[in-house]
Amino acid sequence: MPAALIPSFLLYCFIGAITPGPANLCSLSAALRYGRTAALRQWRGLFCGFAVISMLSALITHLLGTALNQYVGMLSWVGAGYILWLAWQTLRDSGHGEETADPAAPCFRTGLLLQMTNVKVMIYCLSIMAIYILPYTDSFWALLAMGVFLPFTGPIANLVWLFAGAFLQKLFANYRKTVNVVMAIALAACAVSLVWPY
After folding, report:
1. Where does residue 29 rank: exposed (0-12), middle (13-18), buried (19+ CB within 10 A)?
2. 55 lies in some domain
3. Is 24 a member of any domain?
């Protein structure tokens, strides 16, 4: 990538990572509902899932290049379905402290599953590879270097949302049902935005 594109690339990374998406909203929701410690367990899964998606994106981009665009629509529908399930789980939360029975309780596994089905992350990684690497080199090592770098963008933004949720946890304790409804609506909006053009 030419040095002149680095500011554009960093701005794209920041905006793509910090804007609301499934992982950011789930980080916020987990911290609001369960506290920082439980949300951090989920974040470790988010980080590992992001790293796997990033490395797979490097490999897929190297192997398929621009022919990959035809599969983005199918991935969007799968991701939207999972995000709607998360929205439903958030709405179903009773608010009675029964976190151990909650199938969506934050843990490494839920974070990993969320990221592995997060179409926003897939599109984010693939588009960075296609826009900022492929036009200048088709080197697998350049793509792999980007794959190593990208997990330090999105998951760091997840931490911002997570710590915001932990900070606001006590404030929102009295409004748990309202917060759950707002989070579910935001997740549903993310799901719709993934498939709206298709």
Report:
1. buried
2. yes
3. yes
User: CA gyration radius for the chain?
Assistant: 17
Averaged pLDDT in 10-residue chunks for the chain of 198 residues: 79 78 83 85 92 90 66 61 71 53 72 85 81 79 91 88 80 72 75 64
Entry pTM: 0.71
Under DSSP, the state recorded for 107 is S
Cα–Cα dist 64/19, whole Å: 28
Provide the 3-class DSSP secondary structure of residue 93. Answer: coil
The count of domains in the chain is: 1
User: Which spans in the chain are helix H?
Assistant: 6-18, 22-34, 36-64, 72-92, 108-116, 119-128, 140-149, 154-172, 176-195
**CA pair distance 134, 113, nearest whole angstrom:** 29
Residue 185 lies in a domain: no
Task: Enter the tokens of residue 178.
Answer: 């309202």
| 198 inside domain | no
Rounded to whole angstroms, how far apart are CA atoms 45 and 89? 18
User: What residues make up the domain containing 110?
Assistant: 3-70+96-176
